[in-house]
Write a structure and sequence with these properties.
Length: 98
């Protein structure tokens, strides 16, 4: 899980693999060092990115402003900051998927 998560002074950076245009918004699981998520929004004009932020905020119980895409705005592979979250809290939540 170490390549999936990185703790920083501001929170936890999470590697995410996104499938846009899916039938429903869903946190699918962990695979190949990334959290796999599906969103219904298309990958146009930032719609999928906004859907990813909303999905992850709800999943981790964070306000939307605390979830920030750091890298990968135009890619399916993203680095997402979960500001204010501890690595222990994130691991506990991800442990439910393993």
């Amino acid at each position: 899980m170490s390549e999936l998560l990185q703790e920083t002074g501001a929170g936890v950076v999470l590697r995410v693999k996104v499938s846009p245009g899916a039938k429903r918004n869903l946190v699918k699981g962990v695979d190949a060092g990334a959290l796999k998520v599906a969103v219904t929004a298309p990958p146009e004009k930032g719609q999928a990115n906004e859907a990813v932020v909303k999905l992850l905020a709800g999943y981790f119980g964070l306000p939307r402003r605390e979830v920030v895409i750091l890298r990968g705005h135009t890619s399916r592979s993203k680095s997402v900051m979960l500001a204010g979250a501890s690595i222990g809290e994130v691991k506990a939540k991800l442990g439910l998927l393993l």
